[in-house]
Amino acid sequence: MTSTTPGEHPAVIVYDLDGVITTRDSFTALIVEQLRRAPLRLLRALPAAATMLVSRRETRKRRAAARVAAIALTGMSDDYYTALATKFGTRIGGDPAWIRAETVERIRGQNAQGVRVVIATATEHRLARALLARAGVPYDLLSASVLNETAAGMEVVDHRVGARKTDALREQGVPIERVEFVTDSMTDLPTARAAAQVTLIGASQKTRERYAQAGVPITDPTP
User: Fold this and answer.
1) Is there a domain that residue 129 lies in?
2) Does residue 119 form part of some domain?
3) Does residue 202 sit in helix, strand or coil?
4) Reported pTM
5) Do 15 and 117 contact (CB within 8 A), yes or no?
6) 115-152: b or e for each residue (b if 16 or more CB lie within 10 Å)?
């Protein structure tokens, strides 16, 4: 991890979405809503959902999460999913209970100062775009997870979480070693370790302690 001058914003700031700009996980909320509308699919998804909750292995949890999403989105076409994600993202992006207003104002201020804002999220890209547009969050680049249409329905093909989030940012030309990275989650530790500066917004005390144990210095949020 490199460093920047205290009080000085890097030229690029990377924001996580869920938990930082929002108060909850947006893609999970979409999936849960779909499963609640289809009880048989909900029953099919329960074993994978249980694995997500109890497993300590990150790769196993990710596979289980992809399985739950695939079950919830069974039979959907790309066009149908696009309409669904856009409607859902627009709805929650306009809900004050979903949006951290102080983070949005921070991003707007930084954008007005000429800082390049990148949103890096495990949430699917169409859902993320709709949410950010409705919430009025300015950004220059979005790095988000990708779903593709298959014979069975929509499935996750690029889940940008953990180390994959870091790799995807590099693939998109983001100089991760020179950015401020804003997150709330331990799953973002690979990106945090690579970044020049790390800020926690919306993080629990336990997460803050775990970052300290991992040797990642944290800066306080500034406008």
Assistant:
1) yes
2) yes
3) coil
4) 0.92
5) yes
6) bbbbbbbbbbbbbbbbbbebbebebeebbbbebeeeee
